[in-house]
């Protein structure tokens, strides 16, 4: 499979996970069979991880509280940061964990039902981990853009309905 | 006092744009999905807008030179050279209010009373009125669906008279999406040289071709002196509202055009000129990304119309499809009107773009994938309904 075709398929699916495969085939001027095969391969290789939905929880009737936590840790001999990162990312309320350069080590994104739940997570689960040296919690006040999608008021189509 | 009689008969006798009439009808259906828009659905990329905003913050609110900002002209020259192998001097490029002003300037510069201008049709709605306003006689040259709406030299030869002065070419074409590649242009080039004509080449869609890269007629050996090249930023960089374009022509023509521009327009907006320069300097990747999106939608739309049994040639440029709706038994106006009333989808009847567009509709695929999909579903439903209404029964 060409890298260009792979990229085209991935960007279409990233834009809309519910797009029909024969629509992808038409849009990229390829046989449907080839597209099926490509998607299959990408799923098996773990390039396509899952088909999700981007939700703006700020507008949903159940609200969620998001927090970003800067975590300083002591790396472990033989495991570096991986083992400690795993101890953190296995908690289901953790949305993402990144190893960072700079003044702290792990950036942990949390999404839970309430502010209390954030506090509980930090004090009862995160801080007591042996290698964790310090934590700094930032609450998210408003999400403007997520995964490349603007959640704020989108820019309107101001065009006239018919133009030459 | 009859004020209308005070008006010039050329203006009075000019019919209002056929699009205008339809526009009012579409406006009465606020929920309509419009495939009737002749401009990108993208908003100008942010870094281009930001450049305009920053120029205002810096206090750049003055006139520029009549010809345009020297930095922008320099950037355009470089761009024309690298993209289309066209060499123009600094004095041969001028910034205008969109390509529209450039076309008007070209026509007013060239036309003497009685001159004939060949206008291949279907074409953009302004060409013929602009020729008339300049005092010339427009001579429509129909192109045919059978040839994918490409211009044939035989058609030009038939229309040629001793009064013929110029041809207006627009490829990639609005409304048909047809392009003229190198081989298609070669006989036209010979014809133009042989009869010492001028080509006004509207290449506003030049960045939007699918497959073959656009060939400018001015890039043929010896054609620069026969060509007034008109282009702009509206379609390639989604900058329609900025009203900024340019014209490039050999010095003797450019000097004359500049005089009209300086007395009528003075100069293009400085904010738009700054933004246009940013577009050319750093916007080409976005332009490519938009073109690639149009390309995907194009295939989707062509397939949808072909699946409906419409004759629909594959457009190779711009962002329009121009299918024939003859198989529905409706004329283009009835089709467009009924489609709007019954299914709330707006398309433009093809004869708005000239007689040879009769029985066709123009659908723009500069529309989000979502709206496009929904519009195509509605068109399908509409066409199936029409088939059931048709009194002719097919046996088979």
UniProtKB/TrEMBL annotation, chain A:
This is Lrp/AsnC family transcriptional regulator. Signal peptide: none annotated. SMART domains: HTH_ASNC. Residues 71-142 form the Transcription regulator AsnC/Lrp ligand binding domain. It comes from Polycladospora coralii. It comes from the Bacteria. Gene3D superfamilies: 3.30.70.920, Winged helix-like DNA-binding domain superfamily/Winged helix DNA-binding domain. InterPro entries: Dimeric_a/b-barrel, HTH-Siroheme_Decarb, Tscrpt_reg_AsnC-like, Tscrpt_reg_AsnC/Lrp_C, WH-like_DNA-bd_sf, WH_DNA-bd_sf.
Automatic annotation (TrEMBL), chain B:
Gene3D superfamilies: Aspartate Aminotransferase, domain 1 (3.90.1150.10), Type I PLP-dependent aspartate aminotransferase-like (Major domain) (3.40.640.10). Residues 31-379 form the Aminotransferase class I/classII large domain. Its cofactor is pyridoxal 5'-phosphate. Its EC number is 2.6.1.-. GO terms for molecular function: pyridoxal phosphate binding; transaminase activity. InterPro entries: Aminotransferase_I/II_large (IPR004839), AspAT/PAT-like (IPR050596), NHTrfase_class1_PyrdxlP-BS (IPR004838), PyrdxlP-dep_Trfase (IPR015424), PyrdxlP-dep_Trfase_major (IPR015421), PyrdxlP-dep_Trfase_small (IPR015422). PROSITE patterns: AA_TRANSFER_CLASS_1 (PS00105). GO terms for biological process: amino acid metabolic process. Keywords: Aminotransferase, Pyridoxal phosphate, Transferase. The keyword rRNA-binding does not apply. Belongs to the class-I pyridoxal-phosphate-dependent aminotransferase family. PANTHER family: ASPARTATE AMINOTRANSFERASE, ASPARTATE AMINOTRANSFERASE-RELATED. This is Aminotransferase.
């Amino acid at each position: 499979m060409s890298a260009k075709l792979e990229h085209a398929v991935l960007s279409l699916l990233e834009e809309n996970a519910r797009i029909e495969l024969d629509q992808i085939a038409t849009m990229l001027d390829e046989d449907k069979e080839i597209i099926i095969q490509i998607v299959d391969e990408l799923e098996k290789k773990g390039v396509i991880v899952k088909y999700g939905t981007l939700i703006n929880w700020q507008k949903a009737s159940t609200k969620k509280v998001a927090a970003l936590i800067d975590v300083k840790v002591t790396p472990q001999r033989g495991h570096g940061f991986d083992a400690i990162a795993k101890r953190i990312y296995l908690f289901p309320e953790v949305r993402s964990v990144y190893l960072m350069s700079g003044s702290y080590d792990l950036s942990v994104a949390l999404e839970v039902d309430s502010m209390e739940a954030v506090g509980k997570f930090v004090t009862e689960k995160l801080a007591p981990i042996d290698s964790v040296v310090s934590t700094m919690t930032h609450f998210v006040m408003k999400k403007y853009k997520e995964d490349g999608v603007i959640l704020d008021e989108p820019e309107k189509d101001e065009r006239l309905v018919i133009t030459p | 006092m009859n004020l209308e009689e005070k008006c010039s008969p050329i203006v009075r006798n000019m019919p209002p744009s056929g699009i205008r009439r339809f526009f009012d009808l579409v406006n009465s259906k606020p929920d309509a999905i419009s495939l009737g828009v002749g401009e990108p659905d993208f908003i100008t990329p942010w870094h281009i807008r930001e450049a305009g905003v920053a120029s205002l913050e810096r206090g750049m609110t003055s006139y520029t030179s009549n010809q345009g900002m020297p930095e922008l002209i320099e950037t355009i020259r470089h761009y024309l050279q690298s993209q289309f192998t066209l060499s123009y001097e600094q004095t041969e490029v001028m910034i205008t209010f969109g390509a529209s002003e450039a076309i008007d300037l070209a026509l007013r510069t060239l036309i003497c009373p009685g001159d004939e201008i060949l206008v291949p049709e279907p074409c953009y709605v302004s060409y013929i009125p602009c020729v008339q306003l300049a005092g010339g006689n427009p001579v429509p040259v129909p192109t045919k669906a059978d040839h994918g709406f490409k211009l044939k030299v035989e058609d030009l030869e038939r229309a040629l008279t001793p009064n013929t002065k110029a041809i207006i070419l627009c490829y990639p074409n609005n409304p048909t999406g047809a392009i003229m590649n190198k081989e298609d242009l070669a006989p036209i080039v010979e014809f133009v040289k042989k009869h010492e004509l001028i080509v006004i080449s509207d290449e506003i869609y030049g960045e939007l071709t699918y497959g073959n890269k656009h060939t400018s007629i001015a890039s043929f050996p010896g054609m620069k002196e026969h060509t007034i090249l008109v282009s702009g930023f509206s379609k390639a960089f989604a900058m329609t509202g900025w009203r900024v374009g340019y014209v490039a022509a050999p010095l003797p023509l450019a000097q004359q055009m500049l005089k009209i521009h300086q007395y009528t327009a003075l100069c293009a907006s400085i904010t738009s000129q700054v933004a246009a320069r940013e577009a050319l300097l750093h916007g080409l990747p976005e332009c490519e990304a938009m073109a690639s999106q149009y390309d995907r939608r194009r295939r989707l739309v062509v397939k949808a119309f072909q699946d409906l049994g419409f004759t629909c040639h594959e457009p190779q440029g711009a962002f329009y499809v121009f299918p024939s709706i003859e198989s529905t038994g409706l004329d283009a106006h009835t089709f467009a009107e009924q489609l709007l009333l019954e299914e709330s989808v707006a398309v433009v009847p093809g004869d708005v773009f000239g007689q040879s567009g009769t029985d066709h509709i123009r659908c723009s695929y500069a529309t989000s994938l979502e709206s496009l999909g929904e519009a195509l579903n509605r068109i399908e439903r509409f066409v199936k309904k029409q088939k059931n209404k048709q009194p002719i029964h097919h046996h088979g």
